[in-house]
Amino acid sequence: MYLAPALVVLAGLLVYPVYQLGLISFLEYTQAQVSGGEPTTFQGFGNYATLFADGQFWQVLLTTVLFAAACVVSTLAVGCALAVLLTRVRAVPRLALMLAALGAWATPAITGSTVWMFLFDPDFGPVNKVFGLGDFSWTYGRYSAFALVLLEVVWCSFPFVMVTVYAGIKAVPAEVLEAAALDGASQWRMWRSVLAPMLRPILTVVTVQSVIWDFKVFTQIYVMTGGGGIAGQNLVLNVYAYQKAFASSQYSLGSAIGVVMLLILLAVTLVYLRLLRRQGEEL
Amino acid sequence: MTSFVRGAVRRPWRLAAEASALLIAVIVAFPLYWMVLSAFKPAGEIESTEPRPWTLDPSLDSFRRVFGQQEFGRYFLNSVVVAVTVVVVSALIAFLAATAVTRFRFRFRTTLLIMFLIAQMVPVEALTIPLFFLMRDFGQLNTLGSLILPHIAFSLPFAIWMLRGFVKAVPEALEEAAYIDGASRTRFLWQILFPLVFPGLVATSVFSFISTWNDFLFAKSFIISDTSQSTLPMALLVFFKPDENDWGGIMAASTVMTIPVLVFFVLVQRRLVSGLGGAVKD
User: Fold this and answer.
1) DSSP symbol at B169
2) Residue A53 to chain B, least CA–CA distance (Å)
3) Mind telling me which GO cellular component terms the entry cites (chain A) (predicted)?
4) Chain B: closest CA distance from residue A269 (Å)
5) B3 within a domain of the structure (yes/no)
6) Residue contact A118–B121, C-beta within 8 A
7) Which of A80, A85, A206, B27 is the most buried (most CB within 10 A)?
């Protein structure tokens, strides 16, 4: 009975739209059908066939995977490195770093994007000035635009990793480490054989969360590259689906892309659940 | 832990570590500093090819442009209304649901939990398309309701997932004691469990607050013609012009938009960290 409100809301606004998303992806659904000018027709896998025959789709898919992977790896590397650093310093530098990270964490994606754009602005930005890059435009080239978005994504998502991993390291009981030290374990050995296994559940959680977040990056790409970059060079699946649906009114193609994304993320979730199971967690 | 760290790290190394920690803190904080600084710079200094990390005559011009913008106050108010409604409603619903899944055993409990987990993975942006049609069919386009409802739905799964840990932490003996003392189920729920879980609710609400406050996709897609129903991110995008971006206005609007989140974050910071620890451990 306590569950009723949650189930009603979720069924109406999550399950039903997902069902609709799947349905639309099998229909012919463009501007004509939206306004009721033409009847909707069932297309079967027609939309998917169109999509899979489109070279751009595969390119965007590949870009999305590579970009998400780059974001996840960088975020985890920075976050974990800084978490270790936090354990090595006294209170004042630790507080400074924590506060700075919380600030970055709290910054809304849209304002973060605008600020980073301004920092790297070819005319008025301090970054080009400091590094003597002249009027080099970061958003013009494909890779430099992705690099800029990557930096912003890492900046706003490493704090979650850092704070969580730091909390995890702090939670390791001192006795365990003392025992290891008494047994003559070296620093490296201590990290590899004692801390790493104890931190594994936490690392799994932050990795999976990062994969899910970075695979769905939308705001940063949309704002910083002006909706997908010059000639769509910076498109990722999410933005691609949105542009297909709302910019060119091909709602069914957009939905089909959405379904593909959903399936990929579902696969990630299943891997995550299996990892949880293997660690013997009870839900 | 302390003995391990302190004992093993020699002094020069620790100083080097502390110096780099401070340096990194400065780098991480720099974008925010630059944002606030640029918001206060007079127009000539922002659009200067010699950017300086300080300003000698701060001005409120940019803020004046932001607040002078047609209906900016309205946008701000709309954002607040949407965010507060979502936070309160989803916290209450999530509290009830989290209680149900931790305190009662029923047939599809595990299935339900897995569903909540999977629901978190659903890409919000992909659902914009069907939600758009749903809102149209219910005549909700161009209303704040079209922003509130989807956000409640999207913040629920994570909120329930996270609150579980907090509800679980309340000993069952307390519940039995309450019943023995003659408390009804409702009374136990609202007068005993609710205050105990409240810190967790606050931590959870940060996430729903942030995702709602930051959203610009729904605002962009569902509020098409009636600009009086628009929210803050839209007010920010106004300053982007095809040929000449008004950077002063953008930075000032960004500052105005960031500050409420920062304040909220600092207030709940400690609960947030312990809340995350709890969510991770379970």
Assistant:
1) H
2) 21
3) plasma membrane
4) 7
5) no
6) no
7) A206
How would you classify the pairing of strands A27-28 and A41-42? antiparallel
Q: Are residues B161 and B243 in the same domain?
A: yes
Min Cα–Cα distance to chain A from B181, Å: 23
Q: Provide the ipTM.
A: 0.81
- For residues B41 and B117, membership in a common domain is answered with no
| Interface contact A6-B117, CB threshold 8 A | no
Pairs across A and B, CB distance < 8 A? 278
B243 and B152 within one domain: yes
CA distance A98 to B270: 11
Q: Residue-wise pLDDT tens for chain B (282 aa)? A: 444 444 455 678 888 888 899 999 999 999 998 888 888 888 777 776 667 777 777 777 778 877 777 677 888 888 889 999 999 999 999 999 988 888 887 778 888 888 887 787 777 777 888 888 888 888 777 788 888 888 898 888 888 887 887 788 778 888 888 888 888 888 888 888 888 888 778 877 887 888 888 887 888 888 777 777 778 887 777 777 666 677 888 888 888 888 888 887 777 766 665 555 544 443
Which of A12, A110, A251 faces B236 most closely, judged by CB atoms? A110
Are residues B21 and A96 in contact, defined by beta-carbon separation less than 8 angstroms?
Answer: yes
Beta bridge partners of A42: A27
- Which residues form the domain of B38? 11-59
Handedness of CA B118, B124, B129, B135 (dihedral sign): positive
My answer on whether B78 and B43 are in the same domain is: no
pTM of the model: 0.81
- Selected from 1.10.1040.10, 3.90.228.20, 1.10.3720.10, 1.10.10.60, the CATH number assigned to the domain covering A61-227 reads 1.10.3720.10
Residue of chain A whose Cα is closest to the Cα of B48: A124
